Amino acid sequence: MGTRFKVNGRSVDVNADEAMPLLWVIRDRLGLTGTKFGCGIAQCGACTVHMNGAAVRSCVVPLAAAAGANVKTIEALSPDRSHPVQKAWESCAVPQCGYCQSGMVMAVAALLESNPDPSREEVDASITNICRCGTYQRIRDAIQVAVKNARHG
Fold first, then answer.
1. Are 69 and 106 members of one domain?
2. Are 11 and 70 in a shared domain?
3. Cα(70)–Cα(54) distance, rounded to whole angstroms?
4. Of 24, 27, 77, 141, which one's alpha carbon is 20 to 30 angstroms from that of 51?
5. Residue 153: what pLDDT?
6. Domain containing 14: what range?
7. Alpha helix locations (H) across 45-153?
8. Which of 46, 65, 53, 92 is nearest to 5 (CA)?
9. Residues 6 or more apart in contact with residue 75 via CB below 8 angstroms
10. DSSP reduced 3-state for 72
11. Are 47 and 37 a contacting pair, CB within 8 Å?
């Protein structure tokens, strides 16, 4: 018997070393490749997923820490890309290369779930993901659009 937890609402039982980073379990064992590897040291945020509703950097979360948890990846945020953050990302043309965007979207979605109307300072303190393309102003703009989208459905 392995480590049991839920991913995107589906129960899984993963037989792997409990020290294996959750990122590699998600990508290599479960085939959910929307979560990206960036740095491997929890600095960039490309690997951000939700664990029990909180944004976590899955590259440094050991499989053992996921036991009994509910994990959500970008694949389950919204099957039709209708989540307010995804819609805002599109309307503000945030991505350039797009590599970091699934982690960025997941971090922002978790922030807005816990704080539906964050100040600029709260956004800056909470969203520490790195975008190599430097689209930070568009990211800030999209967060404000997402707040409005969430309010007005």
1. no
2. yes
3. 10
4. 141
5. 59
6. 3-77
7. 74-77, 84-91, 101-114, 120-126, 136-152
8. 65
9. 8, 32, 34
10. strand
11. yes
Query: Encoding tokens for residue 2?
Result: 């392995």
One domain, residues 49 and 91: no
Domain co-membership, 104 together with 40: no
Q: Read off the CATH number of the domain in which 61 is found.
A: 3.10.20.30
d(CA 47, CA 2): 23
Total domains in the fold of the chain: 2
Those residues whose C-beta lies under 8 Å from the C-beta of residue 6, and which sit 6 or more positions away, are 12, 69, 70, 71
- The length of the chain is 153
Amino acid at 39: C
| Coil, strand or helix at 71 | strand
Quick one: the chain helix, strand, coil %, rounded to 5? 40, 15, 45
Measured distance CA(124)–CA(51) in Å, rounded: 21
Enter the tokens of residue 140. Answer: 């800030």
pLDDT under 70 in the chain at which residues? Answer: 153
